[in-house]
């Protein structure tokens, strides 16, 4: 695991330092050991649950988000909330997960999208479907961490990053808060004109995530030649 540790240390140095860090308890470390690859457990045990990019990206314990995942996945044939553990989430509600079956997953709660390379590989224009990478738990864990702020920022209706403008207009977030769209994008349309900074409010993160999980109809989504493509409905 030495090479993976070096990669994770590089990632931590690139995106850090982490702020408002809470170190995991012995009980949490033991539970994480049963849910996550060893390299990811080591990372969380070393760096703790903290935030980077001024609060845009937050490492998280999985348990508080498990009820939200249950609402998202419902009785899906492939995806099960008991198989998936949230590792981090963004200030806008994009949740980064680890699945024992499929590796890295991303759930965009505001837009109702679920991304999983193992189930819906990226398809580039003029190319065949991206080959599925052989499952290697430790090697895949680096994909859970961003290297640049733009990797995890949310875009508005004009495809412009929103986080810095949200902080300026609405103020920085408290540890238990997120930026929520009002009306929710599940109602106004994920790519509609309401996807703007002026329609953002600061709200309690877990409560808002649970509401979004019930409002949206989630779809397994992939990146195709012309943008996002819905593969199938989740649940």
TrEMBL record:
Residues 149-215 form the T6SS immunity protein Tdi1 C-terminal domain. Signal peptide: none annotated. It comes from the Bacteria. Residues 20-104 form the GAD-related domain. This is DUF1851 domain-containing protein.
């Amino acid at each position: 695991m030495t090479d993976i540790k070096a990669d994770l240390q590089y990632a931590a140095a690139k995106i850090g330092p982490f702020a408002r860090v809470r170190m995991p308890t012995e009980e949490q470390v033991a539970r994480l050991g049963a849910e996550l690859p060893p390299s990811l457990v080591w990372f969380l045990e070393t760096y703790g649950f903290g935030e980077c990019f001024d609060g845009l990206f937050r490492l998280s314990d999985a348990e508080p988000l498990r009820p939200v995942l249950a609402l998202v996945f419902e009785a899906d044939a492939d995806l099960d909330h008991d198989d998936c553990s949230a590792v981090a989430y963004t200030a806008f509600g994009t949740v980064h997960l680890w699945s024992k079956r499929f590796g890295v997953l991303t759930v965009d709660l505001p837009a109702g999208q679920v991304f999983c390379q193992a189930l819906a590989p990226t398809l580039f224009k003029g190319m065949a479907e991206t080959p599925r990478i052989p499952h290697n738990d430790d090697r895949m864990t680096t994909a859970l961490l961003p290297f640049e702020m733009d990797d995890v920022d949310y875009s508005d209706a004009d495809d412009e990053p929103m986080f810095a403008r949200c902080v300026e207009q609405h103020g920085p977030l408290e540890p238990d808060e997120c930026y929520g769209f009002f009306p929710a994008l599940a109602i106004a349309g994920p790519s509609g004109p309401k996807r703007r900074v002026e329609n953002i409010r600061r709200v309690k993160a877990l409560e808002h995530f649970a509401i979004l999980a019930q409002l949206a109809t989630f779809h397994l989504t992939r990146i195709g030649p012309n943008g996002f493509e819905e593969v199938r409905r989740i649940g």
